[in-house]
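pasting for ref. prot 1 ->
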Amino acid sequence: MVWYKNVYLGDNAKKEKSTIVARTEGRRFQFDVYLITLPSNPDNLLEMFSANELIQPHFKKREAHKDIYIVGIAKGYDEALEVMGAVLTDTYNNTGGFDVAGYLGIGRKK
């Protein structure tokens, strides 16, 4: 799992950023925390999932999560949608397109 250096944060997530990052890295239960990531499916612009999915046995294998690139953190589903909107709006406003990885300077395909 890789974190974008200027990770987008929802207003509620800002207050708990360090705790959320530590609990996510440790794969510990978190109430209502969502991670916004670059997509594993090239047809998607971004993906969002509950941080608790990392607790699942599938993610205990290092290979299962090495390609997860986290670009946003939110507390609550609605805030997650807002954070995704902010990433996409910034990308479009600055590039005229939706190549999020390119806009963020991440050397990876969409």
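and prot 2 ->
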Amino acid sequence: MVIGIGTVRLRLHGNRSLKGKRRVIASLCSRVRGRFNVAIAEVADNDSWQVATLGVACVANDAKHADEALAKALAYVESGREDVEVLSIESEIVAGF
């Protein structure tokens, strides 16, 4: 079993409340989940209304498949909405369970 783990830190331009942040993040997470069959959730910066950190994870039989799935999901987030700026992206493949 191989696990792909990714972290994306985002800046939400023009956002003025936690309610607005939740709307943007929920929409983005729903689209990523549906399109790439990965787990995604906000994992940090929960009380900040202009910054969000998302965690993305996938499980696969081999490292190549996990890396491809994770890379596609992270690229989609990076190329997403105009009002969302990607500050950083990190990914890691964990193998050997």
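The helical segments are 18-36, 63-78.
DSSP finds two helices and four strands in the chain.
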